[in-house]
Amino acid sequence: MIDNCLRGHPYDWIQERPWEVGGDMANLSIKIGKLKLKNPVMAASGTFGYAEEFKDFIDLKKLGAIVTKTITLKPRKGNPAPRTCETSAGMLNSIGLENPGVSSFIRDKLPHLAKLGNPVIVSIASEGDPQEFVTLAKRLDKIKEVAAIELNISCPNIKGTSTLISQDANAAYDLVKSVRKVTNKTLITKLSPNVTDIAEIALAAESAGSDAISLINTLTGMSIDINKREPKIACITGGLSGPAIRPVAVRMVWQAYQKVKIPIIGMGGIVDTQSALEFFIAGATAVAIGTANFINPGVSIEIIEGIKKYLIKNKINNLDDLIGSLNV
Ligand SMILES: Cc1cc2nc3c(=O)[nH]c(=O)nc-3n(C[C@H](O)[C@H](O)[C@H](O)COP(=O)(O)O)c2cc1C
Q1: Is 281 helix (H, G, I), strand (E, B) or coil?
Q2: 235 is catalytic
Q3: Which of 1, 24, 39, 303 could form a disulfide with 64, with the two C-beta atoms 3.0–4.6 Å apart?
Q4: pLDDT for 16-38, tens place per residue?
């Protein structure tokens, strides 16, 4: 398996036949651009490190894909502490894209990730200049262990960027178009929920050549320590994630699904099978698990098993038949 991953096409080993469970069949395999996944559950960027941190807790090979922490051209220290705090049914974070930079990522992190055999989706961002996305994509395009590139145009925690690229349809279009020119890898664009019309931005990404969209990144929020009368995190505002944002995320997946034909990777507050299923029914082709990994590192594997059981129980042979099956 590892041999195939390193020498041949990295995903030759993926089983395309349906999973067999107790004699019943449930086909969980999906396609995102050129990427074939054995199941639709992936680890969300920034909540799974570079997977190494989780290897002692779960069988990483069972995941559909792993999305890396967002990397930038140069190493970043991230924002000052405190960078996280708990909120009702969620958390705020202002990590500020701490990462070792692309060269160190390729040298020190990617070989370990590639050995796992899961498709590796590399999340990238710029520190201000959109051209950095292009430079990063060009570099990753040459690396066969990189299965896909996710454009994080929606991080709310970078100083000096008051408007995100994903808050402006024209800027999103231009950025995706310029990256599309330099790579044939599957391109996923990650969108921000901090917008008026998510479908407009999703359409812009699709028409510029994105193979898929990921949504949602975190919602901008703020939490105050009333005794100190200070913000609970040093950067004052941060990104809200966890179950508190799930209804917003499901709504946005559903709205985007009405407008775009490309696959949607849904995320935001998924903590169990039921919450994951909401996303598929709303129109997501795959889901990513974020904050819940901090509470239960095995949650993604439980969700894969849970989806399988749900499909079998409801006599749905293919996950495809569940996607967008919302009755209104
Ligand atoms: C601590 C933390 C760090 C994150 N870092 C990133 C990141 O580097 N890149 C990114 O695209 N999203 C990042 N996210 C956003 C998640 O990938 C996800 O979109 C969001 O948290 C919603 O999903 P959840 O409610 O399941 O966590 C981060 C989220 C958290 C909680």
Answers
A1: helix
A2: no
A3: 39
A4: 444 444 445 799 999 999 999 99
